[in-house]
Design a protein that fits this description.
The protein is α+β, with helices and mostly antiparallel strands. The chain has one domain (17-108): hypothetical protein tt1634 (3-Layer(aba) Sandwich), CATH 3.40.1520. It has helices at residues 17-59, 86-97, and strands spanning 65-71, 76-82, 104-108. It has a 3-stranded mixed β-sheet with strand order 1-2-3, covered by helices on one side. 7% of the residues are buried.
Length: 116
């Protein structure tokens, strides 16, 4: 198959068709790469905050059975699980207040006593 080259100039500035196509592609790819990078950065920030929350709970010997921490947009955090006591929930709330970058926290932590 023969190689086809485009070198015909268009316009008074002397740009050729191939140059214009390459320029347009670089803009489109640049936007896609920036969008992908922003999504990846947001995902890493959410994961980092989630791991920080779990680390603080472990460091403070707080146990939540069937726990799940969800970090939503704008660092809104939702914590679910089963707690053994109301005191445990208060400890969780105290620890969460000391973690930076959390904008809001909601809890779904029913208290269940006995064997979990």
């Amino acid at each position: 198959m023969p190689l086809i080259t485009i070198s015909q100039s268009i316009g008074s500035d002397g740009k050729n068709i191939a140059g214009l196509v390459a320029e347009q592609l670089s803009y489109e790819l640049s936007d896609d790469i920036n969008t992908c990078s922003m999504n990846a950065l947001e995902a890493m920030e959410k994961l980092s905050l989630k791991k920080q929350i779990y680390a603080e709970l472990l460091k403070n010997n707080i146990e939540i059975h069937s726990s799940h921490v969800e970090v939503a947009e704008n660092a809104d955090v939702h914590i679910t699980g089963i707690s053994r006591s109301l005191e445990n929930i208060e400890k969780i709330k105290h620890v969460m207040k000391n973690i930076p970058n959390i904008t809001a926290i909601t809890y779904d932590l029913p208290v269940v006593t006995g064997t979990i």
